[in-house]
User: Fold this.
Amino acid sequence: MTVAVWDEERRKLMTHPESRQNDEGRIRTIATRLAQAEPASRKVRRDPLDELVLTILSQSTSDANCYRGWEALKARFPDWGAVLAAPDGELEETIRPAGLAKQKSGTILSTLTRLRREHGRPTLDHLATMDDAEAIEYLTSFKGVGVKTAACVLCFAMDRDVIPVDTHVHRIALRLGLVPEKASAVRTHEILNEIVPPELRYELHVLMIGHGRRTCTARNPRCPECAIRALCPRVGLPD
Assistant:
C-alpha cells in the first residue's frame, strides 16, 4: 500500500468514532504493556536552549558519548555567550567526545549566532509564545535542526504534548503498523502526534526508546521476549 493510499484510508477511517477508539485502545495497551516490562523514567528538565544543544550533541552517537561532550562543554564555558567568544576551534575540541565535533560545533555556533542577532543574546525563551506547530517550524529553520530535535525541545524542556520520533520510535512504529510501511521519520512524527493521546506522548516516546534498545532492535529483534508481541503484525519478520 502506498503512503498516499494509506493516508486516504486513514482519513476516511478517522471520521468514524469507532476507528479512533480502536487506535487509542491499541496504543494505550502498547504503552501499558511496555511500562509493565520497564517503567518509563522522567528526563531532567532543562532550559530550551540547553535541551537543543544537548540534542544536537546526541545525534549519531551513544548516550555515554553525548553526555561526555555535554559535561565537557558545561565545564569549560560558563554560558552561551562565552561559547561565542571562544577562539576558533575551542568548541569543536571541547565536544569531541560526542563525535562529529566539526559538524556539531558548526551547528551550535550558527544557532547561537543567529539567536544573539535576533534576540540580543542566545535564548529560546520566545518559544513560550508559540504553539507547537509554530515552534517546530521555527526551530527547524536553523541549519542542522530537524523535526526530531525540535520535538525533543518541546517535549523535554517545555512539557509540550509532542512525541519525538528517533530511530527507535520510527522502527517500532513501522513494525507495529502504526504508520505506512515506507513512512519517513517526519511522516511518522505527523501520524503519531495525531493518533497517540496527548497525555501518553512523552511516556510512549521513552518506552519505545527503551524497548528498541533492549528488545525490538534493528537487527535480530528478540521477539520471543517482547512484551507487545501479541500486538505486533510482523513478529520478527526482517525489514
Q: What stands out?
A: Residues 48-158 form a domain with the Endonuclease III; domain 1 fold (CATH 1.10.340.30). The radius of gyration is 19 Å. The first helix runs from residue 3 to 13.
